[in-house]
Amino acid sequence: MYKSELDKHIRDKTVSNSFVFFGESHFLIDMYTKMLTSIDDANLLAYYHDEYDFSSAKAHLSQASLFGDRNILIIKSERKVPKKELDALLELTHKNPENIFVYAYYGSDHKSYNNAKSFAKTKTMNVRFFHPKEYEAQNILLQIAQEKNVQIDKYTLTHLLKIHNGDIALCVNEIEKFRVFDREISTKDVDTLVYGLGEINLDDFIKKLLEKKDFKEDLQNILEHGEDEIRIISALTSYLTQLYMFNIYIRTNGAPNAIEILGYPAPKFVVEQKASQAIKIKPANFYKLHELLLESELKMKSSHVDKSAILLSTLIKLQKVL
Fold this sequence. Notes:
Blueprint: H1 3-12, E1 18-23, H2 26-37, E2 43-48, H3 54-62, E3 71-77, H4 83-95, E4 100-105, E5 125-129, H5 134-147, H6 154-163, H7 168-178, H8 187-193, H9 202-210, H10 216-224, H11 229-253, H12 258-262, H13 268-279, H14 283-300, H15 307-321
Helix pairs in contact: 3-4, 5-6, 5-7, 11-13, 11-14, 14-15
């Protein structure tokens, strides 16, 4: 199922007690994991990355509570839990409706879980979280700002999202910093206070890259300001995916339509710029570019590798494909 279906179950109070979360948005995976497991006095056991141990996880869900507390198990990992073990943990969860089990999978192989048959015989809710569209991201940030008593409007939040290239997690960190101000936050405040990508426009870097200009000095500047190599690859992949959507739409319909392509209206100059960039890339090359970026991201996620070297090599290869 998708986020909208899970939201409906939450509103109707018909959620299950076991969940498999996966997809492109790690922020939403974390947000819903926290939302569904934040229960006072619960007996919580959480595993992160390589900490998972089947025996202790099984024991945690099997144990009976003398005081009626709820047993909650959370597994967060980029590695897949073996199917037999996952099935066993889900079965234990369903035997006791008071228990809650959330498996948050951060890996990129979604095929196993993005299948209606995978959990058809269980009560498990498997949910794929895509990166939120701009209006969804605005609403999420607006809600978080209200919860933290930060006065900020949607226009300013859009500006903040642009600075951080749509990364909601970074924006939430900034909202946390804004809590010290007992007044409404303006776009000028954002420009003044936000550190990191606020000094570097990642979109401008990507444009220079696609125009086959020398990017090495800009790349060094971005990395020196604390940007992560994997996030740069992800941002570039997202940008190219958007251009591919423009390319297909223009080839089919003759002219771009921001609402149909992006799902929201965009300024005319942005649409014209994206359209111009999109038609310069051959459809077959979009596949090559995405394959190159995804392979590089996978390499970076391996242990003991030089991410900066992989990133530089990838960007040089990318310009050769263009």
